[in-house]
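Look over both lines:
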Amino acid sequence: MTLHDRLCHAAGGCILLGMLVTARLLQPSEFGFGTHEALGLPPCSAITWFGVPCPTCGMTTSWSYLLRGDLFMSLRCNPGGTCLALVAMVTAVWSLSIAALGNYRALLSIRVASLLAILIASITVVHWLGKIF
């Protein structure tokens, strides 16, 4: 494995780790969404413009609750966010171990990773449809 490959894995792992640490440091919103506003980001445009949440509403809050050990609240806010945070945790450890050891081992095949992405997106959309109807 080249130095460039190892640095790319290290950067990816550090970015994910940074996202996870940030989510842990944020105080989750009691409304189940809006935690991202503590980062200086604007409120959800879908809620502002149309009065309904977008499919990703509650993702940051979900990550924040999960990283505080509250799985129930994490799933309640956005189950797709919970799944995504779990994938981020595994991927961060995997990427950083590749960078440290210089030994690449595929975590998942492209097909399985694609199916996982479709599953998380489907969970997110189904949860969102449940919120708006």
In short: The helical segments are 3-25, 45-50, 59-66, 71-77, 79-101, 110-132.
